[in-house]
Amino acid sequence: MKKAAHAPKEGQEEGVCILCGGEKHGYPAAEDLPISLARKAREFFRMPPSHTVACERCHGSCGAKREMFEKRLRTYWICALIFVLIVFAGGMAYQKLDLWLAVPALLGSAVILLLPYGSYFPRFPSPK
Ligand SMILES: [Zn+2]
């Protein structure tokens, strides 16, 4: 293990920076569902745990990136909602409105909701 060039500040952890990819001290990502899933997957495959951090230099640009991801997430939620409405409207148009329509509606909207996670960006709480 390499020694870090300088001691970490309060609230910082050693990890891999999400933006520059450097192994350094930085602020850890907030542990939400995708982050804890990734940690569980690493545990499962017996990979060494790696913390996602934002280093001092990159932390400033993380807020805007997170905002972009959240905006994309909201857009896809609206798309999923519209998709469900279209499925049920289609069922109504053909007078075949039954519960089985919920299956393609749910599957389709699940796929739509997963799409923005292809460009997932974690939240980094601002340092105190
Ligand atoms: Zn960095």
Describe the overall structure.
- The protein is an alpha+beta fold.
- The protein has two domains: 1-57, no CATH class; 66-118.
- The chain is built from three helices and three strands, in the order ββαβαα.
- Strands 1, 2 and 3 form a three-stranded mixed β-sheet that branches.
- Strand 1 (13-17) and strand 2 (23-28) form a beta hairpin.
- Helix 2 (59-93) packs antiparallel against helix 3 (102-114).
- The longest helix has 35 residues, at 59-93.
- The radius of gyration is 20 Å and the shape is elongated.
- The model has no long low-confidence stretch (mean pLDDT 89).
- Bound molecules: zinc ion.
- Zinc ion is lined by residues 17, 19-20, 22, 55, 57-58.
SSE layout and pairing:
Layout: E1 13-17, E2 23-28, H1 33-44, E3 52-55, H2 59-93, H3 102-114
Helix pairs in contact: 2-3
Bound molecules: zinc ion.
Distinctive features:
three-stranded mixed sheet, 3 helices, alpha+beta, 128 residues, elongated, binds zinc ion
